[in-house]
Write a structure and sequence with these properties.
The protein has two domains: about 200 residues, 3-Layer(aba) Sandwich (Rossmann fold); about 90 residues, Helicase, Ruva Protein, domain 3 (Orthogonal Bundle), CATH 1.10.8. About 45% of the residues lie in helices and about 15% in strands. The protein contains 14 helices and eleven strands. The strands form four sheets. A five-stranded parallel beta sheet has the order 2-5-8-1-9. It has a two-stranded antiparallel ribbon with strand order 3-4. Strands 6-7 form a two-stranded antiparallel sheet. A hairpin with a 2-residue loop joins strand 6 and strand 7. Helix 2 crosses helix 11 and helix 10 packs across helix 11. The two termini are about 25 Å apart.
């Protein structure tokens, strides 16, 4: 299969389980191909967990789930060394973070200390336990879910951890027709929860390499940096987008271009992905929030004010 056919097969496989969430499927696959991680934020029952499972199964990945609770400890995530009296030595038993696709379910229901147990793995693709560094399997992809922070019993994610996510997405409620389709599928137990693997892990790793080689013209790179700089200089913003955010957006644009069947990035890719890649990296001044400003309005303002470049014909 060609790269285009492989990507289409993965998306079609996901849609065997997920109804009407093509945009979320594409963005989740984009993040996976870019080597990033996704935070899914929405109310309970809209299909966040099902989406993660469908993505994992569609690429034949090892799926691990961490159910975050208030009493969860960092060792419950990373693993623990247990003494073996027969061998008279400690043996390491890896935690659920050691997998290809890791679902961090309801991540904001546990303490910041336990949330931070994911930080090293998400950034370095490795974890350090008892002074030893353990490389995580490749690909390694964390998709965390959280309920909105205004619900009881939740902890806001620290800014350092939010910055580790490439995208912040929201599932949203289905349309009436889509919800009817969900109910209809529930009548057929053979189709509920089933997603056929579309490609192998080796093929996915090849797609990741291909995505990293997608052409990004210098004017597009400059456009990304200008947008990030505009968030830092905006009057309503207390903390703007970091260089990590700029780099993440570029990598996301490369992967998205591949998903759309191109070998080059366009300014339209930047404009489309910027809200998903930047919204969770910005903190507003309290007085700006009191005045009615929102992160979405700031990003809309940034996109309107930053000059959009024109690609040269020979650059693509």
């Amino acid at each position: 299969m060609s790269d285009k056919e492989k990507i289409a097969a993965v998306l079609a496989s996901i849609e065997q389980t997920i109804v009407g969430k093509r945009t979320i499927s594409e963005l989740s696959l984009t993040a996976l191909l870019a080597g990033g991680h996704v935070l899914l934020e929405d109310v309970p029952g809209v299909g966040k967990t099902v989406m993660v499972k469908a993505l994992a199964t569609s690429i034949g990945a090892e799926f691990k789930r961490i159910q975050f609770t208030p009493d969860l400890l960092p060792s419950d995530v990373l693993g623990v060394s247990i003494y073996n009296p027969q061998k008279m030595e400690f043996e390491f038993r890896p935690g659920p973070i050691v997998g290809n696709i890791v679902l961090a379910d309801e991540i904001n229901r546990t303490s910041p200390k336990t949330q931070s147990a994911l930080l090293e793995g998400m950034e370095e693709a490795s974890v350090t336990i008892d002074g030893k560094t353990l490389k995580l399997p490749q690909p390694f992809f964390v998709m965390a879910t959280q309920n909105p922070i205004e619900y009881e019993g939740t902890y806001p994610l620290p800014e350092a951890q939010m910055d580790r996510f490439l995208f912040k997405l929201k599932m949203g409620y289905p349309t009436k027709a889509e919800e009817i389709e969900v109910l209809s599928r529930a009548d057929s137990p053979l189709t509920v929860g089933y997603t056929a693997p579309a490609i192998s892990l080796e093929e996915l790793l090849e797609l990741q390499v291909t995505a990293s080689n997608v052409i990004v013209d210098s004017v597009v790179k400059s456009y990304i940096v200008d947008c990030a700089t505009a968030t830092r200089e905006h009057s309503s913003v207390y903390l703007g987008v970091s260089p990590r955010g700029s780099l993440g957006l570029m990598k996301a644009c490369q992967a998205y271009a591949l998903v759309r069947g191109r070998d080059y990035v366009t300014p339209d890719d930047v404009q489309y992905l910027l809200p998903y890649a930047f919204s969770h990296r910005i903190i507003l001044h309290p007085e700006a929030e009191y005045g009615g400003s929102t992160v979405d309005s700031v990003l809309t303002d940034v996109l309107a004010k930053v000059r959009v470049p024109i690609l040269r014909a020979n650059s693509v």
